[in-house]
Amino acid sequence: MKVLIIGSGGREHALAWKCAACTRVTEVLVAPGNAGTALEPKCRNVEVGAQNIGALVSLAKRESVALTIVGPEAPLVAGVVDAFQAAGLACFGPTRLAARLEGSKAFAKDFLHRHRIPTARSRTFTRLSYDPAWLDTQPLPLVIKASGLAAGKGVIIADSHLEARDAAAAMFEGRFGAAGEEVVVEEFLPGEEVSFIVMADGRHVLPLATSQDHKRRDDGDQGPNTGGMGAYSPAPLVTPELHARIMREVIEPTILGLAADGVPYVGFLYAGLMVAADGVPRVLEFNCRLGDPETQPVLARLRSDLTVLCEAALAERLDATRAEWDPRAALGVVLASGDYPDSVSRGERIEGLDRAADLVRDGSGKVFHAGTKLSGAEVLTDGGRVLCAVGLGRSVSDAQQVAYRLAGAIRWPHMRYRRDIGYRAIARERQR
Ligand code: AMP
Ligand code: GLY
């Protein structure tokens, strides 16, 4: 069978690599892909943009693609799954209406409050209903969010009421485009963040291995927020008790609530949770897709055939499906451009990829590409997050050593990466 992966990041390289490893898969098309997917055995890049829905449908028809998996949120929110369904093509992901869970924070908050799923208290405003005087009565810090998709930049944590008003005003004035037409104001939740990712078939849920990422750019979780600078799986924070609680209090009510509301959710669902001292897992956000970089370590541990899991979900049979996981831990370090996340330098030659591949010939790791492109035989940087070096080991600590050995083998002029990915998990391992 032929598989199509939509997207061009590290998550999509991991998806393509995992599908290519399935014996029944003859070829994986990646639209548009990156240098990593271009070089991956059994994979072929196709120059079609991830948002060009019409061209993606034509491509899948022309190539007789049996299964399409969508990586990023933008095409999902724009209705790529609806378009594939209308053309009679199998496409794993939520429909446009279900993807509002990520595409509209106002929708997500209303849904969470109505179904009594734990989340921060909040109010949603439009330009007309906005009440700055109410804002001034709220305890600090306050979290101000543009409701629509803002590429991870639409959340401001305000330490003063002035800052909160400025943030809301900037959103209403259009700094985030249409994403800021509605603004969610919510209480600040202290605690530790967890990424909880599942597959859903509309009624049943198959949780993936647990994971955590590091969103801040600099060591010690300092500096600006990014898409993620590194991640690991499993997350020792998520004990079996917490896992059961997240399933019972967050994931199951979400899937059942959406079905009851008439928008069954099929696809990967990512709940960004804040776990506080009281142990309650509260929803910070939903993503209607896999996480990046969480996917890279998570899929590095998946032993089951991913295409079988996706087809089971499309057939509403996830209740009868199990996923097998490598018992080893996996940890991924994102190698980024020097100026990420502020701006993006491109076209720098990456050296050491072959040396890195030699280090993990035994299957103890893998370097996934994100913002890269091929120029002849050379691999050039082409984005903010460039590579993700994943190591596997008996513990998160062992996996971290392999990942940093890989990172140490690679260089380009303005490369930067965090030196402490996994530090919380490693501290927890040492306590045991
Ligand atoms: P979001 O896109 O809603 O996940 O927000 C981006 C990041 O902002 C999250 O990953 C958190 O680190 C932080 N954040 C969002 N909402 C809250 C909140 N209510 N309390 C504390 N931190 C938050
Ligand atoms: N790593 C965070 C995200 O994928 O949204």
Present the secondary structure layout.
Elements: E1 2-7, H1 10-20, E2 27-32, H2 35-39, E3 43-45, H3 53-62, E4 67-70, H4 73-77, H5 80-86, E5 91-92, H6 100-103, H7 105-114, E6 122-126, H8 132-136, E7 142-146, E8 155-158, H9 161-172, E9 182-187, E10 192-201, E11 205-207, E12 212-213, E13 216-218, E14 222-225, E15 230-233, H10 240-260, E16 266-275, E17 281-287, H11 295-301, H12 306-314, E18 329-337, E19 346-349, H13 353-359, E20 365-369, E21 372-375, E22 378-382, E23 385-393, H14 396-409, E24 415-416, H15 423-431
Parallel strand pairs: 1-2, 1-4, 2-3, 4-5
Antiparallel strand pairs: 6-9, 7-8, 7-9, 10-11, 10-16, 12-15, 13-14, 15-18, 16-17, 18-23, 18-24, 19-22, 20-23, 21-22
The structure holds adenosine monophosphate and glycine.
Residues 120, 143, 145, 155, 186, 188-189, 193, 215, 225, 272, 284-285 line the site of adenosine monophosphate.
Characteristic terms for this protein:
432 residues; alpha+beta; Rossmann fold; Dna Ligase, domain 1; D-amino Acid Aminotransferase, Chain A, domain 1; 6-stranded antiparallel sheet; 15 helices; binds adenosine monophosphate; binds glycine
